[in-house]
Structure to design on (176 residues):
């Protein structure tokens, strides 16, 4: 980053998938985001934003929420306003959880899933979850505040194969 760059300021994370076949329970994927303080950026999250919540300062929120994948285009959309995020946070991790109601499901059992991370019209990352087929949840984006105050994006999917209810507590753990 050069001296004139302010880093990433505002991002949109979008998630899509096709509805379940007839006779099967609906497929429900959820976007979640967790914030971490500078003193413990890999410890427990300071707070988690999900389908029933938003960040305390209103800088992380869901624009669209789907419980069945029957949306037009992107089924779930989350906005993260990094340039307005409280200075008490130095790291934000965004993930996707597959709800396990009705039947156990992994990403290999979700029809045509996709995730896109973009800033304005610039696509920072896109993926189809093909690298985490056995996962029930995964992280899809990490944003880290740099020394100059700007935010950097770290792409990559990291799968989680245990109980999705535990995911929000461990999604920001240091990666091996």
């Amino acid at each position: 980053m050069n001296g004139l760059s302010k880093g990433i300021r505002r991002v949109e994370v979008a998630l899509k998938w096709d509805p379940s076949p007839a006779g099967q329970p609906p497929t429900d994927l959820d976007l979640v985001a967790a914030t971490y303080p500078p003193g413990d950026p890999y410890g427990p999250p300071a707070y988690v934003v999900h389908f029933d919540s938003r960040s305390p300062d209103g800088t992380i929120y869901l624009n669209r929420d789907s419980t069945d994948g029957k949306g037009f285009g992107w089924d779930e959309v989350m906005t993260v306003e990094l340039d307005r995020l409280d200075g008490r946070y130095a790291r934000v991790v965004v993930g996707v959880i597959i709800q396990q109601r009705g039947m156990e499901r992994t990403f290999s059992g979700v029809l045509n899933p996709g995730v896109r991370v973009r800033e304005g019209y610039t696509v920072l990352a896109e993926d189809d979850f093909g690298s985490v087929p056995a996962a029930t949840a995964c992280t899809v984006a990490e944003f880290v505040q740099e020394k100059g105050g700007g935010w950097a994006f770290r792409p990559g999917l990291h799968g989680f194969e245990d109980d999705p209810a535990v995911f929000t507590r461990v999604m920001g753990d240091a990666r091996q």
